Amino acid sequence: MKQFAPILLLLLSCATAPVAPPDAGALKQFLAACGSDIEKAKRVIIDNDLVKILTHLQAMDNGGKKYYLLERETITALIRSVTEGAYSDFILVNRSGTVVYTMNNNDLFARNVVSGLKNTVLNACYENRKIRPYIGRTSLLPGDRLYTIPFSSSVSGANTMPGIFVLVVDISKIQGIIGSRSFIIDSEGMYAVTRDRSKINSRFPDFDKINDAAPAEETPVRFTNSRGGAGWCQILRYGNLSWIIVTE
Question: Taking the model in full, what pTM does it have?
């Protein structure tokens, strides 16, 4: 029995290890990098007049993909050459709301975010195009199996056709930054990032207890959950985004 004592002690120490407070610094750096990538990608789009060219190619093929597919790899390479992060998709929307380019999601191509995609987060990106960048809610885009978050911004420049550019971020990338014991809820208490995907956009049951703790920005605050356990919460704000990182 004695030979198992060290192992038992190790297991007990791991099981009762105190929860460390969340660190919003790394996540803020990631969000800032996404914002920087949007601006660099927009420069490429403007310099190459991509919104106008892709809109013209789509019109030539009556909304089809014939000419677009010839340009897709080249455009993807151009955008990737100036962006730092690994994104699950790039999306370009013209001024009328039609998707004229996606890196991966064929289900979105040639659809209109104002009409055909009205109930998706891409419509919110279009409606909030004056916010730079606009960060949308966590969602499943049509044709996609991954929960993602869009970072979008309007694209405009001298003598170019205006549009909207969207960087799409897989939430597993954000989960990797905050760690396996943490999750994120939005300002209304809805799960935005969590390992349990079934909880996405459902209400965190202890949101009222976090409100009672009233965390201040950049300051982790302890709270007691409904099970009597202790946790940490910290507000993170970036652009239009207001998140609470919770660690239990």
Answer: 0.87
